[in-house]
Amino acid sequence: MTTAESTAADDAENTVWKMTLGVAISDVGPCRKRIQVSVPEADIAHVRTQLIDDYTAKAQVPGFRVGRVPRQLVLVRFRQQLTDELKQRVLVQSLEQLTSEHNIDPINEPDMDVESIDIPDVGDFSYSFEVEVRPDVAIPDYASLTIKRPARAVSDEDIDKYLARMLLEYGLQEETEEPAAAGDYVGVSINFEHNNRVAREMPNLNIRIQRVLRFQDGEIEGFDQLVTGAKVGDVRSGKVTISAESPYVPMRSETLDAKIKIKSVKKFVAATLDAALAERMGFESIDALRTSVRNVLERHVTYRQRQSCRTQLLEQITESANWDLPEELVMKQVENALHREILEMQQAGYTPTEIRAREASLRQRSVSVTRQAMKEHFVLDKIATVENVEVSQGDIDTEISMMAFQAGESARRVRARLEKSGVIENLEAQIRERKAVDIALERAKFEEVALEEELVPALDVEGVDDAICNLMFIRSTSATPTA
Q1: DSSP letter assigned to residue 69
Q2: 300 — pLDDT class (breaks 50, 70, 90)
């Protein structure tokens, strides 16, 4: 064999065989495409021949040595296995080739019923499916963007306010016969009435009297005025409006009657900050505690600064992102978006009480928040891809260590909880997106402005970790005639 012939033989051996696919792609909705694929009979025959050759070379049949089994016997003995594997090989290869040749960037697995697909013994093979794909995102020149960056110094007054908030977690509740007052705790049962019938009961809630009582899908405004002056046994009536973005569509924006029965009144006795309490909280002294609080509040400033810059950045770079997202996809991602926001607040040092109130608010507008978060995700994902952003195990370990320190837990326990709840992937995505934001912000122009909002705003919301329209409510109202 000549050198030229040898080279040609090597090239032929290294050439990857490709199918001659017929492909038709059409838009069938926001970020959703319908794809029709046709595989010629000759390509199916090629795959079938390779498959039979593989089986013939490896088949183990009594009375025959491996590699010596007659081809016809292989066809008969392994008919079902050959049929199943032929379908698998043709589908896998055609889908991989389709993705690489037609620039399809799927978000999820194709919507395809593989079990119903059969490859014909004679003739071409065709199949079709629908798939959600990433939107076409255009990335602007970061250097052309101007961002207003809010900043402020942490004062001793800020630290005092934060410590007062912390002491709420260490105070005592003492039962009293006196009328309820703002700041007290009340044990209550609440009946939610719809069409003059009790549709949902929350029998055992222990609630601090605040201006707003917020559930995951609605809130009672003026809750403090409603129950102030009430004694054990009293019943107060209020109204609650279900969020316009409640997962239970029939009740969106509906107003319900809330019958609140007072079962107990407890005066709140705030803890006294002294050396003993500081030690109980894990600090050597009050000064060490105040230093830690200062660090937490500085992280609050950084968090708000980052959120403000991120919001401005994303508003500017998503200005042209006028593509729609499929509602189904948005609903799937509601919980992921919520988990991400809660993770960011945990990392920024917010207390469980603050996070609960924020979570309830987020759940009430979860759909619109998620839709915007997903648009931002696609933009940041494109930036991260273009800039070759990677997340290392060290990045994840650092984040978990910070969360563990804030929660007063071991890093191993925090990691186990994140992995069990499936949030660890959210954490990785969050870090990747943050790095993408940092890259864009490094090149943008900044204008320093004062951070006007309070670092420790007055806490006037009590969050309840439950939705009014849960499964029990739905069952109750499904049998209720419409008024």
Answers
A1: S
A2: confident
Return the bridge partners of 239, or none: 257
Q: Please give the backbone phi and psi of residue 229, each rounded to the nearest 5 degrees, phi first.
A: 90, -5
113/185: higher pLDDT: 185
Within a domain: 104: yes
302 and 446 assigned to the same domain:
yes
Q: Tell me which residue range forms the domain holding 118.
A: 17-132
Residues 295 and 389 in one domain: yes
| Per-residue pLDDT band at 349 (split at 50, 70, 90) | low
Q: Can you give the C-alpha Rg of the chain in angstroms?
A: 31
Cβ neighbourhood burial of 410 (10 Å; 0-12, 13-18, 19+) = exposed
67-94 burial, b if ≥16 CB within 10 A, otherwise e? eebeeeebeeebeeebeebbbebbbebb
Return the sign of the alpha-carbon dihedral for residues 94, 97, 99, 102: negative
Are 300 and 422 part of one and the same domain? yes
What is the Cα–Cα distance from 252 to 250, expressed in whole angstroms? 6
**The CATH number of the domain where 262 resides is what?**
3.10.50.40
| Predicted TM-score of the model (pTM) | 0.51
Domain count within the chain:
3
Tell me: do 211 and 309 sit in the same domain: no
- Tell whether 149 and 246 lie within a shared domain: no
Query: Each residue of 435-478: pLDDT tens digit?
Result: 988 888 888 888 889 888 888 887 889 989 888 887 767 666 66
